[in-house]
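Protein 1 of 2
SEQ + STRUCT:
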Amino acid sequence: MFEELKNKMDKAINALEHDYSAIRAGRANPAILDKVTVDYYGAQTPVAQVGTVSVPEARTLVIQPWDATILHELEKAILKSDIGITPNNDGKVIRLTFPPLTEERRKELVKGISKRAEEAKVTLRGIRRDELEKMKASKKAGEITEDDLKGYEKDIQNITDGYVKDVDTISAKKEKEIMEV
């Protein structure tokens, strides 16, 4: 009955997980390069589409472009991005070495994680509100009864509560990952 509601809430959860995947926890994670684009023959192209990104060691990412002529452009794009890591260009590949996180930086990251979790909850509540308004409009139009409306409101709230718990679980897992590294 509430497939559209669940689909919208699933998208909100997926967006949160995608945001969290770009947060580095002191370990090398290729997802950190998802938002970095390089000028490749006049087109802004994601790093993953111009070469191979690998993780040879826990704190190192290696980018090997398929076209060696773009090494300099790739290096500039990484420097310009906000990932905060200086690339090391050896003429064939670019290495990104992730420094260990300081306690202060970990706490900053945890605050950011909490903020994103709260934003996801606000999004879920907005989706819930929209669905409740649809149900109230259906009642006003005479399509459903007052008792149906009350039942639907409970169902919608239960669905929302489940997704809010998912957000809490996902953010707690990410916070634990950050603090343990």
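Protein 2 of 2
SEQ + STRUCT:
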Amino acid sequence: MEENKKHTRTRIARRPSEGHAEKVDYSTSRSFDSDERPARRYSQDRSNANRPRRTDGDHKPFGERKAYGEHKSYRKPYGSKPAGRSGYGKPSFGGPKPAGRKPFNKHSEAEAGMSAMLSRKPQVNGRYSDDDTVKTEIQEVVRLNKFIANSGVCSRREADTLIQSGVVTVNGEVVTELGTKVNILKDDIRFNGERLKGEEKVYIVMNKPKGYVTTASDPHAEKTVMDLLKGCPTRVFPVGRLDKNTTGVLMFTNDGEMAEHLTHPSYNKKKIYQVVLDAPLKEEDQQKILAGIELSDGVVAADELEYIDAHDHRQLGIEIHSGKNRIVRRIFESLGYEVRALDRVYFAGLTKKGLKKSDWRYLTEGEVNILKMGAYV
């Protein structure tokens, strides 16, 4: 069989006049295995010249088309009820919106009320629970060589040599015995007649998140507030306490004198909390809290108590100077309310302004001076 044998195509054509089929041979025109196929001539094969034109009934000029909005739409107008279905349809994106409806933010009014309450207060900027009377865990008594080393004079081993050489005095007396302990807050410690200041004092404010225990160390706690201060090279301690589920302003320092000044009951430092209850607070209960509530450890009265949301009396702002353990929660629990959320927004002039949850910052020198002067109660 020849390799280049041409294939023959045959079609049957029927003559309308004679009514019988006729064979037509195209064998002289193409070969399937030929590389030189003739190019198609679209001008002849696909010409639009002989195509039938549409009639006016089949096609409308552009100007006669239906106007926008006249076409059939499957969207239902807002508020209409589709047939065979329960409920109401959702509004279309381009449809009319109900008159008088405004975006709803359940926190906006409460936040505005809380801000109004804070605006009336002086501000610096900005295992126990909620107990600001707990003594801050600052180590006041340390070894003399450690104190000298923390002052930046030398290392601990070199400090021992200085002590034995008789150039270190404590409260005016020369100390040569190794292992001597000193009180960093009360003792006057000098090297060659120059008083040593110890390590640099650090002051920090944090916006405490929920779920962290306020303690410097607790082997039973999964998370403590110290876990959030890993970027701080200085060893500091929390000033006062906030409950594990209480959020808000929390201060840290290594200045024991400052911590004592901020937490001792005699200084009456103000605290403001934003409270969310399980039920609206009755007006008669509000007056009771302002007049004074009898608790197991004495009578406690709020300095101020406000509804921060005119439409939701579960949300309150309370100012109090008592730092007793869980004092805010116990006040409301004594009247049959449950505190669902508690956030401290103000402490002795400090606020959490500009701090997100878990964030902290160092206080400026000006802020520290204001706290030391006791300008803000």
